[in-house]
Design a protein that fits this description.
Layout lengths: L10 H19 L6 H8 L4 H20 L2 H10 L2 H22 L3 H29 L12 H26 L5 H7 L1 H14 L8 H11 L4 H7 L4 H31 L5 H15 L1 H13 L1 H21 L3 H28 L4 H16 L1 H12 L5 H26 L1
Length: 417
């Protein structure tokens, strides 16, 4: 089976390039959650209540900017050069780091900088996921690589790497640099990645990759019978997956936003150590992408997703109750693994049930980030209503995990038919 969709770019090169860009745009985006208390002390010195609402607003705006444009970017990804879009995602992330680095001590400017970081993430995902999934799909028969989930897992690890390198850099660089200079530090690798990707990979993509697919399909039996026979278009599966994502995005949005202050205020861990704690556990936990890809190919995506939703609740309980640092660190690692397990199977189900992948992944990112954006603002509201307790946050997050599990149980019935 020939999986070389891009005429001039081998699938393996496509995957490596997407891996690096995925990591690059995620790094600055995931710094803010672990330096919440530092940013709050600079921007909101007069009131802790206003501070939490302000920080929640920044987190929500950043997530919304990563969500709202996704369907539009997905439509562009189905009709235009994805390499150009991926290059511009790096440029937007670079602009965000520069704005925060120089002027982030002003609330409105910080909002603007975080918005650019979110836009960089948003502009990457639809074309990036489409770039990878189509590289490992036969353009004529629409059959998939037998290691399709594992390919998506490798791509997802790039995002996990970025999500962990951001917090880890806080531990090692916060001291020599202040938190604004930390963002400026990441400007340099972003600029280098942008130039290298465009010069050696991105500019070689065909001007209209979708037209290339359709021409190849037309060449064999006019493409119509093969497309109808092989491409899946199960709307009910997509609806269930989107419902599942809504529940889990609320879970992730709330929990990830409060992990750093929770460790600092409840467990007595310094901010920089909490950042390292989260970063290292996320980095190790990103191995869950490989596990999710392997078991997704072996047992089916629905089984993997059900497993993850079930164990999320138990892990959150351990994190809230346990005070032992080694056990807590182990729980954070498992939390990272379980969260990483979701993505290969989720993206695989979406790709297999969608003809226009860019638009489908645009909708995926819209749901994940738009709903996830409610997490920080919900945390801010709960902290104002219950300033002395993190328990309501963990209870709400656990409830959303149970709801996600119910959606998956229904999905398994649908797939079994």
């Amino acid at each position: 089976m020939n999986y070389e969709l891009q005429d001039r770019i081998p699938p393996r090169i496509s995957l490596i390039a997407a891996f690096i860009i995925h990591a690059s745009v995620e790094i600055p985006f995931f710094i803010f959650p672990v330096i919440l208390l530092l940013v709050g002390s600079d921007l909101f010195q007069e009131s802790s209540s206003i501070g939490w609402l302000g920080l929640g607003t920044i987190g929500t705006v950043g997530t919304l900017s990563a969500a709202l444009p996704s369907p539009f970017f997905g439509k562009l990804a189905d009709n235009h050069r994805r390499g150009v879009m991926m290059t511009f995602s790096l440029i937007l992330a670079t602009i965000g780091t520069i704005i925060i680095g120089f002027w982030g001590h002003y609330f409105l400017i910080m909002l603007c900088g975080v918005t650019f970081l979110g836009l960089g993430v948003s502009l990457y995902h639809p074309p990036g996921l489409s770039w990878v999934t189509t590289a490992y799909e036969d353009p004529v028969t629409h059959t998939f690589s037998p290691k399709y989930n594992q390919v998506l897992a490798l791509h997802g690890i790039g995002g996990g790497l970025g999500a962990s390198l951001g917090p880890i850099s806080v531990y090692f660089l916060l001291g020599p640099f202040n938190w604004q200079e930390l963002y400026l530090f990441w400007t340099i690798p972003l600029v280098i990645t942008t130039i290298v990707f465009w010069l050696f990979v991105g500019r070689f993509e065909p001007k209209n990759h979708r037209l290339v697919i359709e021409e190849k399909a037309e060449f064999v039996n006019n493409g119509k019978e093969l497309i109808k026979k092989n491409i899946q278009s199960s709307h009910i599966v997509l609806i269930i997956i989107f419902a599942f994502m809504i529940a889990m995005s609320l879970n992730r949005g709330m929990i990830y936003f409060i992990l750093s202050p929770f460790l600092s205020e409840v467990k007595g861990i310094e901010v920089t150590e909490a950042a390292l704690f989260i970063g290292v556990s996320t980095l190790i936990g990103s191995a869950g992408q490989l596990l999710g890809g392997y078991f997704g190919d072996m047992y089916g995506e629905d089984v993997v997703l059900s497993f993850g939703a079930f164990f999320t609740v138990g892990i959150l309980l351990i994190i809230y109750i346990v005070d032992s640092i080694p056990i807590l660190f182990l729980a954070f690692i498992f939390h990272g693994i379980v969260n990483a397990i979701f993505w290969p199977s989720t993206n695989s189900l979406v790709a297999k049930n969608s003809r226009y992948k860019g638009q489908a992944f645009g909708l995926v990112m819209l749901i994940a980030n738009l709903v996830g954006a409610l997490g920080p603002i919900l945390v801010g509201i709960i902290r104002v209503l219950e300033p002395g307790s993190y328990l309501p946050i963990f209870l709400f997050a656990s409830l959303f995990s149970f709801l996600a599990l119910l959606f998956l149980l229904y999905l398994r019935k649908i797939i079994a038919r």
